[in-house]
């Protein structure tokens, strides 16, 4: 039968009636020359003869004849019984045993029951009372041969190939698509000749032409965005760059210190309560100058709305600020001396008065408020300002009092000593008191003061609970159609729903990308480093946005990508464009949790940032708060003594195209020992140099990094841990990392200096000792043996040392008698002119009488006066 059907209903009908008979199935014996033909119903004796059975088919073996038939009365024997022959066929009137002339080949044969096998007219009608459909059966003589495929035939209905009309694929715009469709309509509907624009047919044609034009643009856009060199969208470039492990810079917001003057002690909380349909908190806002007077603005209020209309730069507090009236401005104390200054590099000072509320961790700002030469405030240098973070606060007193006050006092004067970290050492000399120039010279006290009540703030304004569009239902039109199965009778696979297309946009822009900050972690960090926290990790800035669905604590966060997000991670990606618009992309259920149709998200995010946030000093002078208590507090004035810094604009697309293709050439893995030293300096830029060495520690290799810190000396345990943690990004698997201090080699040098006439021996000797010292010199240079002048494995040469001494005024000649490692005459370098050092050794000559083991320098002077 030529039909290919999935349900054999006729078979069941034939088996249920008794008038018509038919072939049920056929068995082939092991010898392949005996066939057992099974019928639905018993056959009558003599009903079928040899002439009623025809076998057709075959390619190599054809014309197979039935030579004998035997009627049976029982089921056929199992196929494993080869002894069964036609002489003893299985009993049963519904079985007919056939013997054929020969076994067939591997093709399919057809056994057919016919009424007359020798009909000249080609009539192949079945015998009387045999079903025309089940009077034939296809079979193979090789059914018992080993095969790896299922013998059941598959019903395959090949798809119909549609006739493709002739189209011009050059039609890409509205006009050409409209003309193409009208030409097609003239072909299939020649009677339709209407061209009036109001005709419904023309309306539909033009509508489809418009949609086609839009889709053609999208098609071209996809091809354009597929390549780094032609992509125009920032999102496309961002995804291309991710393939080469390059993250483009989306900008960064600026930071600065905010100073508060208060009339009474007050604790200013970073967050203010916001009451409404969804109670929450918002940071206190600091604004640049504007037309409205007064330092405090209420949110909401007309004054605040007016301030926003003036497009100010908005900063927000990053930490709580305990404010004390006594800390508004504090004077430095010079122990009764005048015309004093704190030298550059100072790390401690005394304040005039007792300040019990000063504690370590607070940030103070040194500010020059008067011109040192004139005593006029307008002449003060605005660059002579710096912030320091206190490490110690010690109460002290001057037992003889202040004799310069009016009237003089001899009573003990309370003082407070403050110390700050070395990283915050004063970058310039801070003038404390001076004398005016001119004929009417006078002493000036309080040239510089110390400001307390400082808190860190960064650029950006928070948008609270902005309602985004509701998550839509999956679009049925986007469900992919299942591919046609090979078996037409197989059940169709259920369609797999597609990922929900949900890309909401934020109403305000631009979205801020900022460094992660923790006020608790920053308490021990230097003030200078706090402003630039994470500056060397520009590619790791995170968008300042969170989402919630208004259900409990269902908060969604925004990492840089979803590659490390699990199937249930409530995370999304914020993708910005060059025009500042920001779209949110959610996970697909594998990388990141998939959104649920019907949910509504509320976005809390910050806008601003960029280089426009790098405002100058004394420009932030207003504060806006949701807390009515702040508006009525004792805050008298607000300022930023230091300019804001750190703000960066988003990286340009041309810069990305120029940098991304070469990003993979930048090694960010430590493989060799030299790599570990190089990456250690990347992790901690304060190191002058670092060297790595491999050592077998019993079970695995450990990389010991010898770190040479800036300024020499040893590194603290916290710095060691910071380097070890930072190396996690670069170290190879199976390598442990440990940090060691360098091996300092103390030197011993003795020399005799002959002076020129007219110079004092003490002056020349002191000058030579200064030149060969390890500290900064009055002229701003550093001594020859300054710690940063020598690093790992750097040999000490005699000739440049002699040249440095020879340049001292008053020196006629130099004779070096000792040039060796301290206490080791065998290492003398007088003969070779060099003291070699090993790879982890650093030369040191401090010439400190308190630590003679750190090197000795002996200078004998002769001649002169």
Structure description:
Strand 37 and strand 38 (701-709) form a beta hairpin. Strands 13-35-12-14-26-8-36 form a seven-stranded mixed β-sheet. The protein has a six-stranded antiparallel β-sheet with strand order 16-25-19-20-21-18, with no helix packed on it. A four-stranded antiparallel β-sheet has the order 1-2-5-4, with no helix packed on it. Among the domains are: 9-139, Immunoglobulin-like (Sandwich); 174-225, no CATH class; 255-319 and 615-639, no CATH class; 329-452, no CATH class; 665-740, GMP Synthetase, Chain A, domain 3, CATH 3.30.300; 744-863, no CATH class. It is built from 13 helices and 45 strands. It is an alpha+beta fold.
Structure in a nutshell:
By secondary structure, the chain is α+β, with helices and mostly antiparallel strands. The N and C termini lie far apart (133 Å).
- Secondary-structure-derived class: alpha+beta
**Which fold does the CATH topology of the domain at 9-139 refer to?**
Immunoglobulin-like
Shape: elongated
Distance separating the two termini: 133 Å
Largest sheet: 7 strands, mixed
Determine the number of helices (DSSP H or I, runs of at least 4 residues).
Answer: 13
Please give the CATH class of the domain at 9-139: Mainly Beta
Reading side by side through the largest sheet, how are the strands ordered? 13-35-12-14-26-8-36
- The low-pLDDT segments are 73-92
Mean pLDDT across every amino acid position:
86
Q: How many beta-strand segments?
A: 45
- Kindly provide the radius of gyration, computed on alpha-carbon positions and rounded to a whole number of angstroms: 47 Å
Strand content: 25-35%
- CATH architecture annotation name of the domain at 9-139: Sandwich
In helices, the fraction of residues equals: 10-25%
């Amino acid at each position: 039968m030529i039909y290919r059907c999935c349900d054999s209903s006729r078979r069941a009908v034939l088996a249920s009636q008794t008038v018509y008979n038919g072939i049920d199935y056929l068995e082939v014996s092991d010898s392949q020359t005996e066939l057992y033909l099974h019928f639905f119903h018993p056959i009558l004796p003599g009903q079928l003869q040899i002439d009623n059975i025809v076998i057709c088919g075959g390619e190599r073996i054809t014309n197979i004849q039935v030579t004998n038939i035997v009627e049976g009365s029982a089921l056929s024997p199992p196929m494993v019984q080869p002894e069964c022959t036609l002489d003893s066929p299985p009993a049963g009137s519904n079985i007919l045993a056939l013997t054929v002339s020969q076994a067939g080949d591997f093709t399919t044969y057809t056994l057919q029951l016919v009424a007359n096998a020798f009909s000249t007219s080609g009539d192949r009608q079945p015998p009387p009372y045999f079903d025309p459909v089940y009077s034939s059966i296809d079979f193979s003589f090789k059914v018992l041969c080993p095969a790896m495929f299922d013998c059941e035939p598959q019903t395959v209905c090949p798809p119909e190939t549609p006739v493709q009309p002739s189209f011009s694929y050059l039609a890409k715009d509205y006009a050409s698509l409209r003309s193409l469709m009208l030409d097609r309509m003239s072909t299939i509907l020649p009677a339709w000749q209407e061209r009036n624009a109001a005709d419904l047919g023309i309306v539909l044609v033009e509508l489809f032409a418009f949609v086609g034009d839009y889709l053609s643009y999208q098609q071209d856009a996809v091809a354009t965005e597929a390549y780094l060199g032609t992509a125009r969208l920032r999102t496309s470039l961002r995804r291309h760059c991710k393939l080469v492990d390059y993250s483009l810079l989306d900008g960064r917001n600026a930071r600065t210190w905010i100073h508060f003057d208060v009339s009474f002690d007050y604790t200013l909380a970073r967050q203010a309560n916001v009451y409404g349909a969804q109670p929450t908190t918002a940071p206190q806002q600091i604004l640049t100058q504007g037309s409205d007077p007064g330092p405090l603005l209420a949110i909401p209020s007309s004054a605040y709305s007016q301030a926003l209309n003036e497009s100010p730069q908005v900063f927000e507090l990053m930490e709580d600020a305990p404010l004390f009236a006594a800390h508004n401005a504090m004077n430095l104390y010079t122990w009764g001396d005048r015309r004093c200054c704190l030298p550059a590099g100072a790390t401690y000072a005394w304040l005039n008065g007792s300040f019990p509320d000063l504690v370590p961790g607070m940030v103070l700002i040194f500010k020059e408020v008067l011109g040192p030469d004139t005593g006029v405030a307008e002449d003060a240098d605005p660059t002579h300002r710096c912030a320091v973070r206190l490490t110690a606060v010690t109460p002290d007193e001057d037992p003889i009092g202040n004799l310069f006050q009016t009237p003089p006092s001899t009573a003990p004067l309370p003082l407070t000593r403050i110390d700050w970290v070395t990283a915050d050492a004063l970058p310039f000399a801070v003038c404390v008191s001076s004398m005016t120039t001119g004929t009417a010279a006078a002493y000036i006290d309080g040239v510089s003061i110390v400001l307390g009540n400082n808190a860190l703030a960064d650029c950006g304004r928070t948008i609270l609970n902005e309602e985004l569009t509701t998550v839509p239902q999956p679009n049925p039109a986007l469900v992919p159609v299942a591919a046609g199965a090979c078996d037409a009778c197989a059940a169709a696979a259920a369609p797999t729903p597609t990922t929900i297309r949900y890309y909401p946009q934020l109403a305000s822009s631009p979205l801020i990308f900022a460094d992660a900050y923790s006020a608790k972690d920053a308490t021990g960090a230097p003030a200078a480093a706090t402003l630039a926290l994470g500056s060397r990790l520009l590619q790791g800035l995170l968008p300042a946005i969170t989402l919630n669905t208004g259900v409990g604590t269902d908060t969604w966060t925004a990492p840089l990508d979803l590659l490390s997000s699990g199937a249930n991670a409530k995370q999304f990606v914020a993708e910005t464009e060059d025009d500042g618009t920001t779209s949110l992309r959610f996970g697909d259920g594998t990388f990141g949790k998939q959104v649920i149709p019907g949910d509504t998200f509320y976005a809390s995010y910050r806008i601003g940032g960029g280089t426009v946030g790098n405002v100058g000093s004394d420009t932030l002078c207003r504060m806006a708060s949701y807390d009515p208590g702040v508006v009525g507090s004792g805050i008298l004035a607000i300022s930023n003594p230091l300019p804001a810094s750190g703000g960066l604009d988003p990286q340009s697309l041309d810069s990305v195209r120029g940098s991304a293709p070469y990003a993979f050439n930048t090694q960010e893995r430590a493989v060799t020992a030299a790599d570990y030293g190089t990456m250690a300096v990347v992790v901690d830029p304060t190191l002058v140099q670092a060297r790595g060495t491999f050592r077998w520690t019993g079970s695995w290799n450990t990389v010991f990094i010898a770190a040479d810190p800036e300024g020499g000396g040893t590194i603290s345990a916290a710095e060691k841990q910071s380097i070890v943690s930072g190396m996690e990004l670069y170290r190879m698997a199976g390598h442990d990392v440990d940090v060691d201090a360098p091996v300092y080699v103390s030197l011993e040098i003795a020399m005799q200096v002959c002076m020129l006439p007219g110079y004092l021996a003490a002056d020349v000797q002191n000058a030579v000792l200064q030149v060969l010292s390890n500290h900064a010199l009055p002229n701003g240079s550093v001594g020859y043996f300054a710690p940063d002048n020598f690093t790992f494995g750097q040999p000490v040469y005699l000739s440049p040392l002699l040249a440095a001494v020879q340049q001292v005024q008053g020196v006629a000649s130099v004779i070096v008698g000792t040039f060796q490692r301290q206490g080791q005459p065998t290492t003398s370098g007088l003969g070779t002119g060099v003291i070699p050092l090993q790879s982890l050794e650093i030369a040191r000559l401090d010439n400190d009488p308190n630590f003679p083991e750190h090197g000795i320098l002996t200078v004998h002077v002769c001649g002169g006066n």
